[in-house]
Amino acid sequence: MGxxxxxxxxxxxxxxxxxxxxxxxxxxxxxxxxxxxxxGLPEAEVxxxxxxxxxxxxxIARRSSVQVQFxxxxxxxxxxxxxxxx
Length: 86
Description:
- The protein is mainly α.
- The protein has helices at residues 14-24, 28-39, 43-52, and strands at residues 66-69, 77-80.
- It has a two-stranded antiparallel sheet.
- Helix 1 crosses helix 2 and helix 2 (28-39) packs across helix 3 (43-52).
- The radius of gyration is 23 Å and the shape is elongated.
């Protein structure tokens, strides 16, 4: 007797598909195309849900802040805060 296996395919929920699409693309039309292909839904329906959803990730400032400290008899210390690489 062979081993019986079954494969179950559960498409992602709309929120999961939108979250994934927001992580892959910045343009809303591209996000709608990605999420629609994951769900098998029309792009127009997904685009409306994307516009109503909050952004998946906060916008990070591209410019790093720099702080320079001077102390007597020492060389200046420059402290930079860099945004994480995504």
